[in-house]
Model the fold of this input.
Amino acid sequence: MRLLYQILWKDHSRAHLLWAFLGTLAGFVLLLAGIQFYIDIKSVLSENRDLLDPEYIVINKNVNIAQTLGLSTGGFSEEEIEEIAQQPFADQVSPFLSNEFPVSGYTENERFPDFYTELFFEAIPDEFIDVKSEEWLWDPEVGKIPVIIPQDYLNLYNFGFAPSQGLPQIPKGVLSMIKFKLRLQGKGWYDDYDGQIVGFSNRIHSILVPLDFLKWANDKYGYFDKSNPSQLIVVSKDPTDPSIIRFLEEKSYDTIREKLKSSRMNIILKLIISFLVVVAAIIIGLAFLVFLLSLQLMISRSSEKIRRLNKLGFHFREISRPYILLLLVLMTAVTGFSLIITSLLAGKFHNMAQEWSLNTSTSLHGIIFGVSVGLIALISLANVAAILISTKKLCK
Amino acid sequence: MIFRFEQMIPLPLLEQDTAGSEVWEADSLLLEQGKSYVIEAPSGRGKTSLLSVMYGIRTDYQGDVFLDGRNIKSFTMREWSALRKKRLSIIFQGLELFDDLSTLENIQLKNNITGHVSNERIGELAHALGMEPYLHRLAGILSFGQQQRVAIIRALVQPFDFLLADECFSHMDKENTLKAYQLIQHECEMRKAGLVLTSLNETELPDIDVKLNL
Done:
């Protein structure tokens, strides 16, 4: 059937087919490279955080003017806490317990200037706290209250307040040794307890006391109205999950954004990749059209010959074969070339990433092959159908 | 293979005066394998239309045509294609050669479908019609009479039960016409095939079983 091919291929437009080929190739490379790099970057992102160390996210509601004026109470209702707990990114959720009575602290020490301040306490379950200390215990018999303060507070004092006021800087160990009193006030009465700073938290920006103690103290001294917890701590095993940021923004909850950097990066990455995929899809779509039109043009240029061949006894399927073969050759070439180019790009990307000591894959991910073959099959099928339809139209 | 026509007339001929036609005015007409038919008429009386209907490339007619008892309107494209490969051969009035293929290639194109004859046989057929020197010339540069002979050879390189020949001698001299006719006759006899030949009636052809006036 060499003659059949010779007759029908004579009418092809080399320029059309070449542009269609290049266009499809460009679209494919863009798409495949996009997917490849997306998978790479995603794995880099998740590699870079310690899998054993989930992220602790403290969230609070944005303060609004109504709360300032006392018209509404802030804090999370039970339903809201439940809703957060149900989010896929939230593995554990715990509200902060606050003191429901006035607290103040003061020093009675000859070596330090007298110091008095009103205070607040918050408490969360121990497993959320990054400080482990043997002294983190509450025993009503002993009556000593262990306190954890944020590392930032100490830094503020040591590197901000103390130098400007001519006060001595205090190392952590010394601060832990300072004895101070804590005064818990009930309605019309009070008790003094010994307080001791037992650690400094990098995770939680609050003055923490053991949960047992605060529950006990609220029972004993508390007389404020019970209010909803104003802060929650959420443990997320996957802080790169972009749904965290989306959820928080939708609910207009607030948190320390720094901790959700990878979540945000993930969103940006997804945006870039989606843009890339859309562009690739448009290019592939256009290239597909050019392919379709070039083949249709070829067929219509050959319509006289096709009619003649049909009169000689050729079935339209036999007449379609040279077009289908041409299509499949070009499509196979597109697949082959796009895989080669994408793997070359992956190699280049790997080298670049290594300079930043990131580890990306040098070989193509399995899904790349699946996507390219699947898409080529789809485009080919559509074209084959178009070829068969238009040759059939010419035949009797 | 038997063609049976039941008051079949191509639609364009309905407006024409077909009085006296032994085909268009016949209630029923049989064309049988093994017999040779000549259909004579001046131009425009529907000779080509008749052959086109029999070959399945025209469907704009009234009445019915049966091939071995089956209405040909029920044939699928696949069936027509198979018929044209194995049972029906045709020499088109317009020849339908590929100008940019050589004489030999034009013949091979058809022969390749069924592989019915060898290349030597093609050579013999070409020799019989004096076309051997032109086998490797492009068909497009041959004279129309030579092209007719190419079309005749092409029609003979396949198996058939009926050969339809549409004014296939119109541009040949008497000597070549007789040569070609003898070759066709011989090939039909070998296959026990029927022959339907249309003609403007310039040359008297021998051994015709049935003459029909259109």
Observations:
- Helices of chain B lie at 47-55, 77-86, 103-114, 119-128, 144-156, 174-191.
